[in-house]
Amino acid sequence: MSDTTSPTGAPDSSGAPGFDDMARDIAEVPAVEVIVTVAVNLMSAAAVKLGLTEEGDEHKDLDEARKLVHALAGLLDASATEISSFHAAPLRDGLKSLQLAFREASLVPDEPGQGPGEKYTGPVFG
Prior knowledge:
The protein has 5 helices and no strands. By secondary structure, the protein is an all-alpha fold. The model is unreliable at 1-6 (pLDDT under 50).
């Protein structure tokens, strides 16, 4: 019998970890790792929505990409004092690359400083 439970408290026979197990696991992860993981996930999702993957335009959606890039910029801005430059520098480089890719993919480019995330980073130029 499984020792995990569903959100309702009933035993979970799927073998999937329960909330208590997940909370214990996440409690062991340093905040910097959580922030970096979320940032990398946002970067990956934005790259897909910008059509930068092997599938190219199949998943391209600039409206969705704008939201993801903006969220990434906000996260990096908010966490700048919390994560070391060792972690922050490559994330900022990735953000800038995504912002430039967005500008390039847009049929009507945003004004400098108005692109996704530029509220936090300032204007991005190639």
